[in-house]
Amino acid sequence: xxxxxxxxxxxxxxxxxxxxxxxxxxxxxxxxxxxxxxxxxxxxxxxxxxxxxxxxxxxxxxxxxxxxxxxxxxxxxxxxxxxxxxxxxxxxxxxxxxxxxxxxxxxxxxxxxxxxxxxxxxxxxxxxxxxxxxxxxxxxxxxxxxxxxxxxxxxxxxxxxxxxxxxxxxxxxxxxxxxxxxxxxxxxxxxxxxxxxxxxxxxxxxxxxxxxxxxxxxxxxxxxxxxxxxxxxxxxxxxxxxxxxxxxxxxxxxxxxxxxxxxxxxxxxxxxxxxxxxxxxxxxx
Length: 285
Ligand code: RP5
Known about the structure:
By secondary structure, this protein is an alpha+beta fold. It has helices at residues 50-54, 167-179, 187-200, 236-239, 267-282; strands at residues 45-48, 101-105, 111-123, 141-148, 154-155, 159-160, 204-212, 221-231, 249-256. Strand 1, helix 1 (50-54) and strand 2 form a beta-alpha-beta unit.
């Protein structure tokens, strides 16, 4: 695996803004994010979205005391980069620091909420099929991006790992649903999608596992993901794929990985890690 831990910089996207569909977060300056720094005036807003309080996929407040945190059960409560603390009420504390909101916001789980992100790549090519290079002579990598319906941002087609599901199942399912619209495909198209996905997802490389600076994070609930790269070196597998947005995606497209990408949550970092990883293989003797 290429990267294991969150780069040591304070989270930004889950701070100093209005929570989606919710209240204004209490302002947390950069130097007060860390829990090691005292912040006596800190007065975060308590917010858990109505639908989280009643959703069958969410933890129930009445069960909070009996939840065992920092363990892997049917629901993964591990954080991947060390144990997190829980307070006197058995409520987990975001180890990456203050966000200006307590409660769960839009997230179902107390503590880590696990996702999986498939970064599907191929080299950009010229008309004649040769690999395309940028003006520094570096081969250009492309990845499949979706446009999220919830906030209009371009993103990796990832999704939540549902209780009892594995990361590998989620990677494949989310890519199929969001980038290939498998949910609305005919039985024949579904069979074809499944056979192409078998080929593409047969060999993946784990690139990152850890915290995500997601706009939904709070002091008590946060996103954690596992990022895999699935790469089509020759571009042949993808000549058979027809990208079509589905489920939570409003659009889908191949995007070149360039310095000016502005992706959802920590996805800029994730595609950058994938690019570094692919280049390190490309230049191997
Ligand atoms: C991000 O949220 C993860 O990196 C993943 O891409 C995504 C999962 O949430 P949904 O797409 O299911 O909303 O933190």
